[in-house]
Amino acid sequence: MPPPRVTAPVLLHRVEPYYPQAARRARREGWVEVAFTVLPDGRVDAVRVLQAEPGSVFDLAATTAVRRWAFKPATRNGQPIAMDLRQRLDFRL
């Protein structure tokens, strides 16, 4: 029996995160690494911050944006499945 054929999710719609005003005024830059699950219907669920530099400055902006992303879901043997992903979002002025 051949191994199952798995395809990764494909990003269809990306929402860019807003730049927090306090960070913009302070000329602060940084990044946030998030983990999340792409559901079988292509929606994003269970968004969580893994690491951030600086901590807590861009977390809300990053997680809010990622929750609004849409994907063509991952598949196993042609059937949609949930899959966990990680993504780093950079905040640069």
List strands and helices in order, with pairings.
Blueprint: E1 6-7, E2 10-13, H1 21-25, E3 30-38, E4 44-53, H2 59-67, E5 70-72, E6 74-76, E7 79-81, E8 83-91
Structural class: alpha+beta
Main β sheet profile = 3 strands, antiparallel
- Widest sheet: strand ordering: 1-6-7
Count of alpha/pi helices: 2
Rough shape?
elongated
Tell me the fraction of residues in β-strands, as a range: over 45%
Query: How many β-strand runs?
Result: 8
What is the helical fraction, as a range of percent? Answer: 10-25%
Mean pLDDT: 96
Radius of gyration: 16 Å
End-to-end Cα distance: 53 Å
Secondary-structure element order, N to C:
EEHEEHEEEE
Uncertain regions spanning at least 5 consecutive residues:
none
Characterise the protein shown here.
The model has no long low-confidence stretch (mean pLDDT 96). Strands 1-6-7 form a 3-stranded antiparallel β-sheet, with no helix packed on it. A 3-stranded antiparallel β-sheet has the order 4-3-8, covered by helices on one side. The protein has a two-stranded antiparallel ribbon with strand order 2-5. It is an alpha+beta fold and 93 residues long. The protein is elongated, with a radius of gyration of 16 Å. It contains 2 helices and 8 strands; from the N terminus they run ββαββαββββ. It has helices at residues 21-25, 59-67; strands at residues 6-7, 10-13, 30-38, 44-53, 70-72, 74-76, 79-81, 83-91.
Q: How would you briefly describe this protein structure?
A:
With 93 residues, the protein is α+β, with helices and mostly antiparallel strands. It has helices at 21-25, 59-67, and strands at 6-7, 10-13, 30-38, 44-53, 70-72, 74-76, 79-81, 83-91.
